[in-house]
Amino acid sequence: MVRVLVLARRRTGTRAAAHNARQPDAGDTRRLGAHCADYRFFHWELEFPDVFRDRGSGFDAVLGNPPWDIAKPNSKEFFSNLDPLYRGLGSPEARQTELFADAAVERDWLDYSERFVAWSNFVKCTSNPFGDPEEAVAAGDSFSIVRGGANAALHAAWRAARSRARGFSDPAHPFRSQGASDLNLYKLFVEQMVRLLRPGGGVGVVLPASIYNDSGAGPLRRLLLTQCDLQWLFSFENRAKIFPIDSRFRFCCVIARRGPQTKSVRVAFGRRRWRTGLSRAPRDRGGRRRPSPVQPNQQCNPRG
Questions:
Q1: Who has the most CB within 10 Å: 84, 104, 232, 274?
Q2: Over the Cα atoms of the chain, what is R_g?
Q3: Would you put residue 259 in left (φ > 0), alpha (ψ -120 to 50) or beta?
């Protein structure tokens, strides 16, 4: 993405000098390098050229147990690094004011908080980073490069330049299936994993139970049901301490293949052990595990 933006800026700089567009200078390059090092941008096609060699390319399989954290500022986590007793304070706001007497602490807190805003903006815009009004006006995420009527001409020139580029990964870039709730890292990972698969490629992932019972995960469920063949969804309770987390926590194992649309899925809920989760799955008269049919408009959670 960074390379595209720099090249586009150079291109528009040669055609739109009247609009104060300019070539990037040494300061721009230095700041860009600092941002790249800070945010650790990753280009899948460049990092895995042996995988993305032709249109429709992708991984045969992607496996993972992604983090399940909400991506939002956590004052307890931040200020506890400065004051180990912070979590137990009855009035933490007063302690924050005291800590902010140090301008460096306040600056660090603002930088920490702004990083989450940047992540949110990235997730919102990355599936359509060019703000092309012709393609994005219906989605409400178009934006202007310059003021006035020249905006349409600049977008047209930029669109023509992009049309000459080739890409081998899924052109429907993430993240378009995150919903309107707070960013949850597991949802970002799942959508990215699906988009990295070749047609027919498989994904296996351990997820929290919210993937099937949270209304905020509705768009992600639709992705798994309509653009994948969702094959297995086994839900476990952590009573047997499979993971070193709260014993009441519920999680599930999800297995799917990229396309076609899901027609049936094997499901089990409330299991407490790995072996019983598989052995007690519904079976037909021949002893085979029986999938549950899924209607085209049916979701795992009736509300979403």
A1: 232
A2: 24
A3: left
